[in-house]
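testing teh design pipeline on a random one, pls ignore if ur not involved
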């Protein structure tokens, strides 16, 4: 024993008061959340009190401390390594480390220092979760947090704190009154904003937690039932009067407000059977005419106006999966023949006539006829198509519209009047189903957040595409179902090859270096969120939604995208001007002057607007002003709409067939290099998947080297629908892929995403 320890021990045996001089210098230690555990004892004698921090004592279980005799000695080690022995009668209290933490947490909470108190509760929950008094202290702490949130009008947060405070035992007093007050405020806001789904979810949650008798729950449940009953009665009156359209809208409003209102389900079912009707929110305007364009909007709308001989319905490990709406599709093992057994023999002749006609407006029909050997019938209902040489996906060549020869294959007839596009089911449509929507209205929204608000308020049933930054918000809403299209959209700038500068691969490459594609995509479009399948591309070819997605078979991942290098861009612009001047001198023509302004066109969609606005700013940094114009949704060739660059959102389904078609639509054949033309031709002649991949990589390399178009990025496109809206396939190829199976009302709505 060292001298100081021996001295203290000797003194303690004689008289406690003699310790005054040695202990007076000690300050009371305040427990900190990250401290090594220590305990504290309080010594008192003749009016003098001292608080000493000691290493935790190891005491027997039970009430050993309280049953000690006054003359019993307690030996302890202080936090500064001194050894003390003191009689039990001098120790007025002994506080263990968890209680020290809890005392400090309580002091900070009462002082309004809630952030500081959190660290203490966090340590307690991690190391002493069963400590006596912790649950009650947590309840009080959460109650104090709730009061702050309530004063700040953050009623949702306040309610969350209060509900959690209620879960601890014993809870603080008056929690039910506080919960009712916060719920009343929050429900009032939800209903004022017509967020009825959120209001119903909150009422349901409170009821499940045995808060169903609270004043706020009773008040707002009664209110919603009354409002829904008004719409129910209105819908019944309209139905009786024969106004099916208005009755449908009133019933939908009824279900939106309170779906469990008495008699509502039966009325909705009756109206839906008599008048199935769907409203679709579209974020890119509908196409103005029938078109074979591969743009997102044209691909979306085409399914409503035509059925194809074969249609891509999914994508698997072995490529696209195809079916025919007219019968059973089959193909030979060697890929030189495919057949179609028609359900209706009268349709076989019309389809064969379509195959044998001269190529007109359909580029896919032209591609098929180039490969045809012969077409024949068997038994008056089985169509056999023989190709000149094997093809890995012969069914993909037959994705041709046949409405011109078979009017009963047209699903909907355009009955638009005014700004709202309205399509009504063709009464002669041979593939019509009983539940199929009688009418579809396409309501255009310039911003998808407005479309999302309209969906939540019941004005529409489905939104064709969400801006990427809204996906998380929509997925968090239990009244909505969020899904994405199986194939990504491919975004690029198509040059106008009538412009001599755009004919220069050097100038086009300069444009590519001038645009910070990664910054635009990640910051402006994705909001700095990572969404798999959204990334910069080096050629206008889909790379698939995942790293191992078989749909990306045409994309060469070994080719890195060109970086953002504005200095390189300026140099290439000057080099392009020099090349054009030399060419003009050789031709004896007038040399062009350097471009100062570019006209950039884009469809009236939110993604393209945001992207083109950012692109214009980057071009300005390298000396090019941009004039931005809105072009038709189906526009895909820049020269056709009189712009220098056209922003294209392409929907590529089967790359093997669609990529050659995409180049054909965007770039005049005489402006394509002979190497690219040859590579595209050889691509269509591939007889196995190994050849397809190798030849696609050649196409990719040529498109990259020549900068045939200015590639930007690909996006995983999400759509969202009401949870009560049924019949939509998971991860469809296009929005209206299964429109015949859509149901306007589902009486057993599926919640969640």
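output:
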């Amino acid at each position: 024993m060292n001298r100081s320890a021996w001295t203290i021990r000797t003194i303690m045996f004689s008289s406690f008061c003699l310790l005054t001089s040695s202990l007076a210098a000690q300050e009371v230690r305040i427990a900190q959340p990250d401290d090594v555990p220590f305990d504290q004892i309080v010594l008192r004698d003749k009016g003098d009190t001292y608080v000493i921090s000691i290493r935790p004592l190891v005491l027997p279980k039970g009430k050993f401390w309280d049953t000690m005799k006054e003359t019993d000695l307690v030996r302890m080690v202080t936090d500064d390594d001194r050894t003390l022995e003191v009689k039990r009668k001098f120790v007025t209290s002994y506080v263990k480390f968890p209680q020290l933490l809890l005392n400090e947490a309580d002091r900070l909470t009462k002082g309004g220092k809630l952030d500081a108190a959190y660290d203490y509760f966090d340590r307690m929950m991690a190391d002493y979760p069963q400590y006596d008094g912790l649950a009650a202290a947590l309840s009080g702490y959460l109650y104090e947090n709730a009061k702050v949130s309530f004063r700040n009008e953050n009623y949702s947060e306040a309610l969350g704190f209060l509900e959690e405070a209620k879960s601890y035992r014993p809870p603080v007093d008056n929690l039910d009154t506080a919960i009712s007050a916060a719920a009343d405020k929050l429900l009032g806001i939800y209903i004022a904003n017509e967020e009825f789904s959120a209001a119903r979810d909150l009422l349901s949650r409170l009821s499940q937690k045995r808060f169903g008798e609270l004043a706020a729950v009773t008040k707002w449940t009664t209110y919603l039932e009354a409002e829904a009953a008004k719409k129910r009665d209105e819908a019944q009156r309209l139905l009786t009067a024969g106004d099916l359209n208005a009755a449908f809208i009133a019933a939908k409003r009824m279900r939106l407000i309170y779906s469990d209102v008495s008699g509502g389900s039966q009325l909705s079912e009756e109206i839906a059977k008599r008048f199935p009707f769907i409203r679709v929110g579209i974020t890119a305007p509908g196409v103005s005419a029938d078109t074979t364009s591969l743009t997102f909007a044209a691909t979306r709308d085409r399914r409503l106006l035509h059925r194809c001989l074969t249609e891509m319905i999914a994508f698997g490990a072995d490529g696209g999966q195809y079916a025919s709406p007219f019968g059973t599709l089959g193909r030979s093992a060697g890929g030189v023949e495919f057949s179609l057994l028609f359900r209706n023999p009268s349709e076989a002749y019309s389809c064969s006539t379509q195959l044998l006609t001269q190529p007109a407006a359909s580029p896919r029909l032209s591609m098929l006829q180039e490969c045809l050997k012969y077409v024949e019938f068997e038994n008056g209902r089985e169509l056999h198509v023989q190709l000149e040489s094997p093809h890995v996906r012969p069914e993909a060549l037959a994705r041709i519209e046949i409405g011109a020869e078979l009017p009963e294959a047209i699903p909907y007839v355009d009955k638009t009047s005014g700004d709202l596009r309205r399509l009504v089911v063709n009464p002669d449509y041979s593939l019509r189903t009983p539940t199929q929507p009688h009418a579809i209205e396409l309501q255009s929204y310039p911003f998808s957040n407005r479309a999302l608000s309209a969906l939540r308020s019941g004005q529409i049933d489905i939104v064709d595409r969400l801006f990427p930054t809204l996906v998380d918000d929509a997925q968090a809403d239990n009244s909505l179902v969020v899904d994405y299209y199986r194939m990504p959209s491919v975004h690029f700038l198509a040059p106008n090859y009538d412009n001599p500068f755009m004919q220069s691969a050097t100038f086009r490459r300069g444009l590519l270096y001038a645009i910070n594609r990664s910054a635009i995509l990640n910051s402006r479009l994705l909001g700095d969120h990572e969404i798999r399948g959204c990334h910069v591309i080096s050629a206008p070819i889909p790379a698939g939604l995942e790293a191992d997605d078989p749909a990306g078979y045409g994309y060469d991942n070994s080719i890195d995208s060109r970086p953002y290098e504005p200095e390189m861009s300026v140099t290439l612009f000057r080099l392009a001007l020099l090349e054009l001047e030399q060419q003009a001198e050789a031709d004896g023509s007038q040399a062009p002057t350097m471009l100062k302004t570019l006209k950039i066109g884009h469809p009236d969609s939110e993604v393209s607007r945001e992207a083109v606005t950012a692109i214009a700013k980057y071009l300005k940094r390298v000396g090019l002003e941009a004039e931005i114009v809105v072009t038709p949704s189906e526009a895909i060739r820049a020269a056709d709409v009189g712009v220098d660059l056209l922003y294209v959102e392409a929907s590529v389904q089967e790359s093997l067939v669609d990529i050659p078609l995409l180049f054909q639509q965007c770039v005049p054949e005489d402006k394509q290099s002979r190497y690219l033309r040859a590579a595209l031709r050889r691509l269509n002649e591939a007889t196995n998947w190994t050849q397809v991949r190798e030849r696609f990589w050649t196409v990719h390399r040529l498109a990259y080297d020549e900068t045939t178009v200015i590639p930007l990025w690909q996006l995983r496109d999400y759509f969202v629908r009401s949870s009560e809206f049924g019949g939509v396939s998971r991860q469809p190829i296009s929005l209206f892929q299964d429109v015949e199976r859509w149901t306007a009302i589902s009486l057993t709505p599926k919640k969640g995403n």
